[in-house]
Amino acid sequence: MTDTETTTQDALTDVPGLRVGHAQRTEDGWLTGTTVVLAPEGGAVTAVDVRGGGPGTRETDALDPRNLVQRIDAVVLTGGSAYGLDAASGVMAWLEERGRGVRAGPDPAQVVPVVPAACVFDLGRGGDWAARPDAALGREAAEAAEAAEAAEAAEAAGNVPGTVAQGNVGAGTGAVAGGLKGGVGTASTVLPSGATVAALAVVNAVGSVLDPATGVLYGELFSGRRPAIPSEAQHTEAQRRLAEAVKASGPPPLNTTIAVVATDAQLSKAQAQKLAGTAHDGLARAVRPVHLLHDGDTVFALATGERPLPASESGQLQELNSLLAAGADILTRAVVKALLAAETVTGPGGVFPSYRDLYGR
Length: 361
Prior knowledge:
single chain; globular; five-stranded mixed β-sheet; alpha+beta; six-stranded mixed β-sheet
């Protein structure tokens, strides 16, 4: 792990200006939701790296460093598979009402918000196949992000960012990882240079998050600290219960883990794309196997640009390498936090036990 320290909230919102909003539905056959990451006014440089074989995305081509758009105002992470990408339409309309987006005419209201999005497969996990996020839920998540921004403004004297809910919230509401209940997790760190690097993950993987020999979360093996190892009897019983839950629920046909990594460093789109790609290494430490044909693993990278890189070429390279390493480390930790925050769900769509329930954490 990098020589870093945890920031105030240990969350994506520790990158100044970023806000997170969740919206979800959990009744009457629903078990899904949407998460919006809202950039500061003026947007953030954004890039993406897609590694899974079955991605569901929107507006990712606009993030190619060769293309026109340099900054975006929001990223949407959503359940509902490809249907759920409709949530981005609600966020797009919400941004347009506020005059935020790519200027497309002389009138300040003439904007086209570019809203990249990625989805996870959670269809039917609440019991109703047709219960999936739509534009209204996307708008609700954007409003929740705005509310978080207002809350921070009210606390400006203390300069304390709002906390970010984790576990069974937003796009992680119906998430499942290798039969375990998945969810949303977030983490952050500060480099020796003072730059902040943070991540938010929606953990919904085909692969396992557990070391089969011990029951330790794979991600904890890379934490730099000695993980608590369950007893053999505890591990055996947990594996039995997990196997029963998987059998009762049926094997998930499709999954996907999606994430946002962010920094307050000043990066180009090409550098941000490298950050997104390297962050996938953190995902590979926490989920095995990863990037399968039934996954759509996608990582977005945001750079708000408040902290310039060193002027010298050698200093700049050193700082970039530190940012890349931290991006991978912090995404691993965000995955672990998602699994530890998740809560067991039992309903018409299946039985999805949490790691804490199985292993007494």
